[in-house]
Amino acid sequence: MRRNALAIGLVAAMSLSLTACGGSSENADSGNSGSGDGKQVVDVVTWWSAGSEKEGLDALVKVFNEQFPKVEFVNKAIAGGGGSQAKQKLATDLAAKNPPDTYQAHAGAELQEAIDAGYLEDVSSLYDEFKLRDAFPKTLLDRLTVDGKIYSIPTNIHRSNVVWANTEVLKAAGLDPAKPAADLDGWIADMEKVKAAGKTPITVGMAWTQLNLFENILLADLGAEGYSGLFDGKTDWGGDGVKKAIEHYGKILDLADKSLANEDWEPAMKPVIEGQAAYNVMGDWALAAFNAANKKSPEDYVYFPTPGTAGTFNFLADSFTLPVGAPHPDNAKDWLQTCSSKEGQVAFNTIKGSIPARSDLSADDLAKFSEYQQSAMKDFAKDTIVSSIAHGAALPAPVSNSINDALGKFIQGASDGAQLQADLVKATASK
Amino acid sequence: MAKKTKAVSSKSKISSWGPGLLLISPSIILVGVFVYGMIGANIITSMKDTHTAAQVSGRKPSDFVGFSNFGKLFADPDFQHSLINLLLFTVVFLVGTLLIGFLWAWLLDRPIKGEGIFRSIFMFPMAISFVASGVVWRWLLNPAKGETASGLNRLFQQVGLGFLQNSWTQNITFGVVAIALPAIWQLSGYVMALFLAGFRGIPDELREAARVDGATEWQLYKQIIFPQLAPIALSAVIIIGHMSLKSFDLIMSITDQRTYSTKVPAIDMFNAMTDNDYSNAAAIGTILLVIVAIFVVPYLIHDSKESAKR
């Protein structure tokens, strides 16, 4: 009995001291963020919470602290695959008229919903103020402009149509890593060879990574013009082009390791990095995963545009917005200025693995980028640019979510090719 | 004379229930607004056509469309799949926890050494949140087979039960049953505690009297113990049943919101919210509320009848 009393006393003391800790740290927080000591804050919501993304954000914040020492950056990052968790929270906050000062969003059609709802300020005037109209390439500005207005400022540009391949696995299957297949049929034949050599031909992860793979197959089968036509009604989702792409997609999935279908992109990329699988189609943020594993190209891995899409650049961009009713709009503008500045873009992109949205960098700045990034910059300047579906550049968020659902059904075998096409038609007709 | 007594009694009535009412009135008002008021608001939203963010923010008008959202949902094969999943999950979860919980309670009811230790072991999983155990079970239920197998599939391989390997959550028809495994693991201990309390509530005199009367062990259980445990079993069904209807976190952490095989209405509701489709989200919420009511209301009626009897 006495021992019990002692134990209870101990627990009580511990919980008391814990609450005391909690209380004191809270006080410290509010002391920092309060305006009492003259320090200003900016609340920034991102989904960059781990790995190279987090490090890139940290680098950007460092530049921000140098440029605007009076404003404190408050990280409101929400973790979770491709931002799905963050978007859920944001949708609620925006509807409740309780927006953060600025939030991360994929540039392009994904913002359409928020624009229609009147959640976002037109930031066109900031483009003039920060002199961004000459700094950003025209192709990018066109993709950001909605009815003559621009609602976000991009920090970077990514490419989604990149195949990452393991050199050793390709060699073991009798393939030449330096000479990737020219089209999808050739690529599927290569995968058969990998399978015959006893390795996994291709890996694919959760829903959005499936869409990332599928959109590039669409791009390969429809061509750049036909693919872009999917979004303005010129290409029929129910047509033969999409049907052919679904057939290719089905064949490739048959060769894929489907046990990863619940995982984020990093676990799905791991077998390629470690030499159990040959290919994975992923945006160029995958470069950071290879760097983190100390792998070198072309000894350990090679990258090339998805077969059939050479000469096109499937584009997506991360950007920051200015919500209507932001509590600290002036500080948010400071943050946007840092995001669009040369220093900010160089610091962020050298680490995150993407390329800067600005096209006016000096040779010194360019030299700071890796070999892959320099090649991507060259491609962005000369290739045909198309918009990614999986990353919100091409279609509004509810539509790409319905496409995700349709692909999720297909990979589990709950729908066949014809059903998938019907689901895609339904998904894209809903808006 | 008669009039006077009436006035006195009504006065004394106010003084007897007045303070009590005053005391609980804040909670009545709060429950009225934040439970029943919100249920009402939810039902109204479910009968509108608020399917876009612009309508949520009030930029575009929303119209009243009656029950058409419900009609469309029930006609949608994907939503039907979610409902079937929910039914499968609930049945397996209920039967599993009741059977295992009863078995454990029955074993522990006999005086055995170290009962406290076993009780803690069986109760322990309940202390873990669904999200935390979901992360572990996600790995245990890894669908890979053969060389790349991990988790349970690997274990089956190593102990020579390779034929038991399966695709777990990835099976379109029975994937959701795989999610019921961790749910059963987690809540069987709780059901055991309920049943154990029930067993302990039966006085030894009753058993002894039955034995003296010459009842066999089976008759003892059938005639004496099971009838006494019935109310406990009913509460277990209600508690586990409504938990399974609301199950969301476990599924989200083992698979994810877009995995077709393990989709249930609660996940659909979350997805509709993400797309700013408030009306469909509210309609699914209303459907869930009705299903839970079907579970709970008979219990409440039964309960109030019982207390009226006493």
Strand content of chain A: 5-15%
Q: Poorly predicted ranges of chain B (pLDDT <50, ≥5 residues)?
A: none
Please give the domain count of chain A: 2
CATH class of chain B: Mainly Alpha
Spans where pLDDT lies below 50 across 5 or more residues of chain A: 14-36
Structural class of chain B: mainly alpha
Query: How much of the polypeptide of chain B forms β-strand, as a percent range?
Result: under 5%
Largest sheet of chain A: 5 strands, mixed
Q: Reading side by side through the largest sheet of chain A, how are the strands ordered?
A: 2-1-3-14-6
Q: What is the helix fraction of residues of chain A, given as a range? A: 40-55%
Integer average pLDDT of chain B: 89
Largest interchain contact: A-B, 35 and 34 residues
Number of strands of chain B: 0
Radius of gyration of chain A equals 24 Å
Oligomeric state of shown chains: heterodimer
Cα radius of gyration of chain B in angstroms:
26 Å
- What is the CATH fold-level name of the largest domain in chain A? D-Maltodextrin-Binding Protein, domain 2
- Look at the structure and give the mean pLDDT of chain A: 87
Subcellular location (chain A): Cell envelope
Keywords (chain A): Signal, Transport
Pfam family, one (chain A): SBP_bac_1
Organism (chain A): Boudabousia tangfeifanii
Describe the secondary-structure layout:
The complex is a heterodimer of chains A (431) and B (310).
Chain A: H1 2-33, E1 40-45, H2 51-67, E2 71-75, H3 84-95, E3 102-106, H4 112-116, H5 124-129, H6 138-144, E4 145-146, E5 149-150, E6 152-154, E7 158-159, E8 162-166, H7 167-172, H8 184-196, E9 200-203, H9 207-232, H10 240-254, E10 256-257, H11 265-274, E11 277-281, H12 286-292, E12 301-305, E13 312-316, E14 318-321, H13 329-340, H14 342-352, H15 363-367, H16 371-382, E15 384-387, H17 397-411, H18 417-429
Parallel strand pairs in A: 1-2, 1-3, 9-10, 9-11, 13-15
Antiparallel strand pairs in A: 3-14, 4-5, 6-14, 7-13, 8-11, 8-12
Chain B: H1 2-46, H2 53-56, H3 68-75, H4 77-109, H5 115-123, H6 130-140, H7 151-158, H8 175-201, H9 204-212, H10 217-246, H11 249-254, H12 265-274, H13 278-309
Helix pairs in contact in B: 1-13, 4-8, 4-10, 5-8, 8-10, 9-10, 10-13, 12-13
